[in-house]
């Protein structure tokens, strides 16, 4: 194995280079290489200053997460960084790209920091269920104070180089060539006789500390509910004030290793890699040529079309947004502008940037303007006849080689593609509302979709900062198909006498961002109802099937937008309230349908919502709709509010035991019959063979 770390010696300034593509993760080999390099420089003793630098696309992106499942091998990061900090000559970090986690901690072990103007620094470890364990909780409070350190550690969000300079983390921002400026900076230090400046020797600024701790304790309990690593992080930062540096480091390491072994961290690490795996498509040759997508057309400027237009505009792609009439177009553009204005008000966008983004979107009333677009996405009403008509038109207007995509959430993409003379250029791009915010993008692959078209869609998905997940064709694709049994049981339990709050509180206590009934209220009860009505011929033979939603719909209780749905909403408040009128309507429906009043307890609510969700996931996997169980986990964490720290439904199911899910399915089949409770054949097979969904992924994907 070649050493990823090398020393460059041209003059009195030594450069310690790391080259470990793709992101210079600090693996065992890198730790060994760094240790050897600094020890040998210390021994030689003739370098007057040292620069810590990386080759490739970024400075260290942190510790190598793929090693976290293995026992730690010496040297530990803390020891490497102690060695760097202990050098007798100044060590300067040359930061570019993203210095994250252990990468940022490496910079704190250096005595001086020079950063490229576009660099970003951050401690995102909480996203992985751990916290900075290589000195970050001890050095950062010493360098910038507790409040500033807590902001960076607890929000887990990277900051810009200029913000880092303002906070006193970065000493110099390189406007030009980073390495040239880092060397000049180091040379100046030597000339001025400035020696090492170890952060560990600083004392901690305790001003306003208790207020900051109280703020983040509350933040951990509300925004990071159910998680343990944030509380451990707070404890470690406290140690920076209460303990000498070495003892603080030891406590940090102990707590960090404990955090690493929790289910929370394993689940978050699973999601980290799962999100990156979705773009790897088995059978898709590496050299598949992609189609360049330089400009995009969107048909429909409603909520969905407008949101999609924003995604592309944000990525710097020119968008042609077409609507059927002037009023709708004006309204659509005004909504987009209002959304951007809100971001300006929050200080996250300047007025100038907003104008530039708006200028990326050209409104039009004429589909002929799609003629030169490389990709056109239709976001018209969910109706097969309408979509077919739209695709016939797009096929005649759009240039050869243009990709045509439908934003359908349920309809058969092959049937739509068959209307065109280019079915190989057709696929589904299913965005989630609000499209400019939700990270999930289901990429629906038709029977004839060309490999290059699929690859281009995945690439453009990443470019617009979405997590694209490939789905085969079935009603509802991956996400909505699984939502169906989950929501069906929630609605059925309403008829049995549970209240919306009884049900949603169980799901929210588990960690779902929102209970499923509140989700229906948010998405619009009428929307789901219309879709179910359209599939009337295939509706299961059970009159209670989504009957609670149907009665809400018929009473005009569409959810938040009408002020009433399963809950009642009050303008000006963000709360939702139990509504006696809704309960009475549901009770009456139950009576009409002869549903016995026998309200389920919390355990039953939990099992009846979650087990069929996993069971449907198993069917989806078995049928080849999803490529891997981890893709299903990504769909549900990125698109449906499933708690990331539980790893997604399939990872969670593996954790609690597939035999338990299977036994639950059988228990409810006994009670309610086989219509909805037939265990998935794959679930039965895996349990029989003593395997997990993760095993299935290893063997098949
Ligand atoms: C840490 O540092 C703990 C310490 O405090 C203490 C320890 C005791 N390790 O995202 P991309 C892979 S925890 C291993 O598509 P981008 C990734 O899987 C760490 N692998 O690129 C992918 O592999 P593949 C704290 C990693 O340009 C490839 O690199 N650091 C790591 O869109 C490209 O990744 C973080 O949490 C890693 N650390 O984004 C930062 N990072 O090609 C995590 C990436 O086989 N990383 N890979 O699919 C990121 O946020 C992004 O990857 C980054 C680049 C912004 C760097």
What report would you give on this structure?
The chain is α/β, with parallel strands linked by helices and 701 residues long. It folds into four domains: 5-261, 2-enoyl-CoA Hydratase, Chain A, domain 1 (Alpha-Beta Complex); 296-471, Rossmann fold, CATH 3.40.50.720; 478-599, N-(1-d-carboxylethyl)-l-norvaline Dehydrogenase, domain 2 (Orthogonal Bundle), CATH 1.10.1040.10; 601-701, N-(1-d-carboxylethyl)-l-norvaline Dehydrogenase, domain 2, CATH 1.10.1040. It contains 30 helices and 19 strands. An eight-stranded mixed beta sheet has the order 12-11-10-13-14-15-16-17, with helices on both faces. A six-stranded mixed beta sheet has the order 1-2-3-4-6-9, sandwiched between helices. α4 (136-144) packs across α9, α9 packs antiparallel against α10 and α11 (263-277) packs across α25. The longest helix has 21 residues, at 602-622. It is globular, with a radius of gyration of 28 Å. The chain starts with a strand and ends with a helix. The mean pLDDT is 96. Residues 22-23, 25, 58, 61-66, 77, 98, 100-102, 105, 124-125, 128, 132-134, 136, 256, 273, 276 line the site of (S)-3-Hydroxyhexanoyl-CoA. (S)-3-Hydroxyhexanoyl-CoA is lined by residues 22-23, 25, 58, 61-66, 77, 98, 100-102, 105, 124-125, 128, 132-134, 136, 256, 273, 276.
